[in-house]
Amino acid sequence: MRVVNTSTVLILIVARVSFGLKYDNLEDFVDMVEDNINKALNYTISKDNSDILNLSSSTAKDFGTFDFIIIGGGAAGAILANRLTEISEWKILLLEAGGLPNDFTKILGLSPYNYFSTRSWGYNSTSQKHACLAMKEEKCSLPQGRVIGGGTTINAGVYARGHPEDFDRWSNVYGNPGWSYEEVLPYFKKSENAVFEPRDSDYHGEGGYYTVDINAVKLFKPLFNEKGIDFIDDYNGKYQNGIAQVQMSLKGNERVSTYSAFLENFTSRSNLNISLHSFVTKIAINNATKTAYGAYFVKDGVNYFAKAKKEVIVSAGGINSPQLLMLSGIGRKKHLKELNIPLVKYLPVGKYLQDHILFLGLIVRTNRIFYNQTMAEMLKLYEENQRPLMTGFQVELVSFTNFGRNQSIRPDIEYIISTPPPSSSQFEIFFGIKDSYMDPFNINTSSDILIYTCLMHPKSRGSVTLKSNSPLDKPLINPNYLAEDEDIETLYRGVELILSMNNSQILKNYEAYIVDVEYPNCVSYKKSSKEWWFCAIRQFTSPIYHPVSTNRMGPDPKTSVVNAHLQVHGMKKLRVVDSSVMPELNSGHTTAPVLMLAEKASNIIKKQHNRY
Ligand SMILES: Cc1cc2nc3c(=O)[nH]c(=O)nc-3n(C[C@H](O)[C@H](O)[C@H](O)COP(=O)(O)OP(=O)(O)OC[C@H]3O[C@@H](n4cnc5c(N)ncnc54)[C@H](O)[C@@H]3O)c2cc1C
Ligand SMILES: *[C@@H]1O[C@H](CO)[C@@H](O)[C@H](O)[C@H]1NC(C)=O
Ligand SMILES: *[C@@H]1O[C@H](CO)[C@@H](O)[C@H](O)[C@H]1NC(C)=O
Ligand SMILES: *[C@@H]1O[C@H](CO)[C@@H](O)[C@H](O)[C@H]1NC(C)=O
Ligand SMILES: *[C@@H]1O[C@H](CO)[C@@H](O)[C@H](O)[C@H]1NC(C)=O
Ligand SMILES: *[C@@H]1O[C@H](CO)[C@@H](O)[C@H](O)[C@H]1NC(C)=O
Ligand SMILES: *[C@@H]1O[C@H](CO)[C@@H](O)[C@H](O)[C@H]1NC(C)=O
Ligand SMILES: *[C@@H]1O[C@H](CO)[C@@H](O)[C@H](O)[C@H]1NC(C)=O
Ligand SMILES: *[C@@H]1O[C@H](CO)[C@@H](O)[C@H](O)[C@H]1NC(C)=O
Ligand SMILES: *[C@@H]1O[C@H](CO)[C@@H](O)[C@H](O)[C@H]1NC(C)=O
Ligand SMILES: *[C@@H]1O[C@H](CO)[C@@H](O)[C@H](O)[C@H]1NC(C)=O
């Protein structure tokens, strides 16, 4: 535990070398941050895409001919653009709907404010029946990156690959040769530059472009240890299950995105053409031969067409990749017919959507003051690489836990432990919570610890569908969170485990306890009964924005959209490389597997074109 007072701050300033964001003086830095926060608080999320897209009826101007066109410069697209331009004879066009990140995005601890900016697509789910009931209109807020780097430019930065069993299942259960853990591990390592110690070095890369670091204290590790959950140094190493300090996409004090890691230093490659503010509205397909040959996009209100000689690669993310395929005539027959979109290929696009969801509502209240700084003070600490703004959502610890306590079985639950927690008003804003619903929590940001309980392997699956045949409309996202009973049972078991810690020694040491919250709307259930907790969970749920499986990978075109080489079934020169191809969720967060799959896809592509 560290209580920061003035004298320690001074010592730290002298002792630490500071990296990253350099402003002439602290005041300018604070002004920049406060300006961005104020803009976010005053930002109106557009109901449709008209804030970045002007459709015009003029004929498309020729943007030229390229070997590959990559649609979306997010987590996956940025890596592909880097790796494919390693072949100097290949000309690559990267089309990204968003623009460049600003300095504000580099501060992981303030990442949620980016949801309320041009850098997010600003999605909500459809009204949910079984979860997110405390959210406005029962819609879960579902931000997605709309900026180069995609999710990695606005996300919380947690680097957690998952369990070996996850990838073995991609291979064995879903029938995708080449994707077992043993076969994908080299691609996790390829991107990585792990700089934290101690770590299981056999499992990490060094000298890759994507830096991974740890910046956390170990406050509540013993709490889990008392329950027989082991401390582990490195959950991306030999063993995943246990409690550990969170690994972050972090270099010095700055966020690492796929833009900063894979593109920023490579823009001078003469065979790489990055076109920002370029919203792709349709993939050009020869229907007779089922061959993709280009992309239509709108940039600054002008229509363009770019031609692809070798391939079109869709990397628009878990929501927008299925949207774009459907707008281009690839999808479910009935749905496309309803919207008057001529069918090119019948595939289950948008089906099988899965997402990680967590319970927001467990607070540990202590008698200590861990953090009590003004924004200016926190930013000063940040300049010296000090918490609390170093990690997304101020996450310190994560615990991957399976109820069988067996390292060879993947975890059921991830606990995400944040200090300091967001304030009640930040909660309301970040998660879109209904007015007054946060009142019973009365969060104390100086002394509370928040434990989020996250379901790793939901059984519920939902869908992404189109509202209309126009790219101006945002897609309809129905994740069906907690629709399957097994999901809420598992989350509840996760909550029970934390509740059983209420009388533990470590909490006693801090004169701490788990706050007994009077969750709104649960009065009709017996206090603290299972039904009462189900009521609480169904209300205070939020996704952690990992939509996957909407173009899932598999051998059968009836139940999957791409094959194990990520080629769209029954189509030529068309691939999908992004989170949408994951057959199911991993036991972690989704950035790391997307980095892996983009690295692997780059090699597959090079091999298939005899360049490897
Ligand atoms: C708020 C938030 C927090 C998250 N926190 C974490 C975390 O802590 N740890 C973690 O591991 N993962 C986290 N994730 C998830 C992670 O960021 C995503 O899984 C990952 O970015 C997905 O990569 P992708 O390449 O599939 O899509 P994205 O990274 O979303 O990239 C898709 C890109 O395509 C562009 N695009 C979309 N449609 C079009 C179009 N029609 N034309 C042109 N361009 C288009 C988008 O603007 C975007 O840049 C978080 C995500 C979000 C949104
Ligand atoms: C918020 O936006 C409104 C209307 O656009 C404007 O009048 C107001 O000054 C803005 N407030 C801040 C704090 O920027
Ligand atoms: C999502 O919900 C929030 C909160 O209700 C609202 O402000 C926002 O406009 C909604 N977004 C869309 C795209 O409808
Ligand atoms: C769309 O066109 C209108 C009218 O020309 C303009 O005011 C607006 O800024 C444009 N929007 C975008 C996103 O280009
Ligand atoms: C990218 O392609 C466009 C259209 O062909 C061209 O105008 C532009 O100069 C190219 N940019 C680079 C950096 O090659
Ligand atoms: C980009 O290049 C600079 C200068 O060579 C180097 O210091 C930096 O580490 C590079 N960044 C990445 C992400 O490789
Ligand atoms: C594409 O071809 C199929 C026959 O293979 C036909 O049924 C369909 O209508 C065509 N679609 C378009 C968009 O022309
Ligand atoms: C927060 O908790 C600390 C430590 O117990 C206490 O001193 C402080 O008064 C509390 N703040 C509020 C607003 O309740
Ligand atoms: C936090 O700091 C402020 C300003 O220094 C002080 O007024 C307040 O009492 C402090 N709160 C706690 C809980 O220490
Ligand atoms: C752990 O699970 C594996 C796979 O189910 C099983 O083979 C093994 O016996 C279990 N080990 C323990 C210690 O329970
Ligand atoms: C935890 O224990 C304290 C007493 O130490 C009690 O007041 C509180 O209600 C308990 N919390 C829960 C969630 O049961």
UniProtKB/TrEMBL annotation:
<feature type="binding site">
    <location>
        <position position="147"/>
    </location>
    <ligand>
        <name>FAD</name>
    </ligand>
</feature>
<feature type="active site" description="Proton acceptor">
    <location>
        <position position="589"/>
    </location>
</feature>
<keyword id="KW-0732">Signal</keyword>
<dbReference type="InterPro" id="IPR012132">
    <property type="entry name" value="GMC_OxRdtase"/>
</dbReference>
<feature type="binding site">
    <location>
        <begin position="155"/>
        <end position="158"/>
    </location>
    <ligand>
        <name>FAD</name>
    </ligand>
</feature>
<keyword id="KW-0274">FAD</keyword>
<comment type="similarity">
    <text>Belongs to the GMC oxidoreductase family.</text>
</comment>
<feature type="signal peptide">
    <location>
        <begin position="1"/>
        <end position="20"/>
    </location>
</feature>
<feature type="domain" description="Glucose-methanol-choline oxidoreductase N-terminal">
    <location>
        <begin position="145"/>
        <end position="168"/>
    </location>
</feature>
<dbReference type="GO" id="GO:0050660">
    <property type="term" value="F:flavin adenine dinucleotide binding"/>
</dbReference>
<feature type="active site" description="Proton donor">
    <location>
        <position position="546"/>
    </location>
</feature>
<dbReference type="Pfam" id="PF05199">
    <property type="entry name" value="GMC_oxred_C"/>
</dbReference>
<dbReference type="InterPro" id="IPR000172">
    <property type="entry name" value="GMC_OxRdtase_N"/>
</dbReference>
<keyword id="KW-0285">Flavoprotein</keyword>
<feature type="binding site">
    <location>
        <position position="280"/>
    </location>
    <ligand>
        <name>FAD</name>
    </ligand>
</feature>
<protein>
    <submittedName>
        <fullName>Glucose dehydrogenase [FAD, quinone]-like</fullName>
    </submittedName>
</protein>
<dbReference type="InterPro" id="IPR007867">
    <property type="entry name" value="GMC_OxRtase_C"/>
</dbReference>
<dbReference type="GO" id="GO:0016614">
    <property type="term" value="F:oxidoreductase activity, acting on CH-OH group of donors"/>
</dbReference>
<dbReference type="InterPro" id="IPR036188">
    <property type="entry name" value="FAD/NAD-bd_sf"/>
</dbReference>
<dbReference type="Pfam" id="PF00732">
    <property type="entry name" value="GMC_oxred_N"/>
</dbReference>
